[in-house]
Amino acid sequence: MLLYPSIDKLNEKEPSTYSLILLASKRAHEIQAYKDFKLDAYKSVKPVGQALEEVVAEKLYIQED
């Protein structure tokens, strides 16, 4: 169960749940493969949770054309 970050905070940053899932999954793969962290500290130990924390911290977003 996902407690942090809350889905409400995530939807404020990215209203499309589909886009949010794609963004988090791709970033989680990068975190696992390259150990490339954008935050100094994470509450979550799993890469998907860490990616979602980056979304809330506005370190990760979808670039619009």
What kind of sheet is the major sheet? none
Report the helical percentage: 40-55%
| Mean residue pLDDT | 92
Topology, number of strands: 0
End-to-end C-alpha gap:
34 Å
Give unreliable regions as ranges: none
- SSE string, helices as H and strands as E: HHH
Global Rg: 11 Å
| Number of structural domains | 1
So how many helices? Answer: 3
Family: Belongs to the RNA polymerase subunit omega family.
EC number: 2.7.7.6
Keywords: DNA-directed RNA polymerase, Nucleotidyltransferase, Transcription, Transferase
InterPro entries: DNA-dir_RNA_pol_omega (IPR003716), Pol_omega/Rpo6/RPB6 (IPR006110), RPB6/omega-like_sf (IPR036161)
Describe what you observe in this structure.
The chain is built from three helices and no strands. By secondary structure, the chain is mainly alpha-helical. It has one domain.
Characteristics of this structure?
RPB6/omega-like_sf, 0% strand, 3 helices, nucleotidyltransferase, transferase, mainly alpha, single chain
How are the elements arranged and paired?
Layout (H helix, E strand, L loop, with lengths): L6 H7 L3 H18 L12 H10 L9
Short recap of the structure:
By secondary structure, this protein is mainly α. Helix content is 54%, strand content 0%. The model has no long low-confidence stretch (mean pLDDT 92).
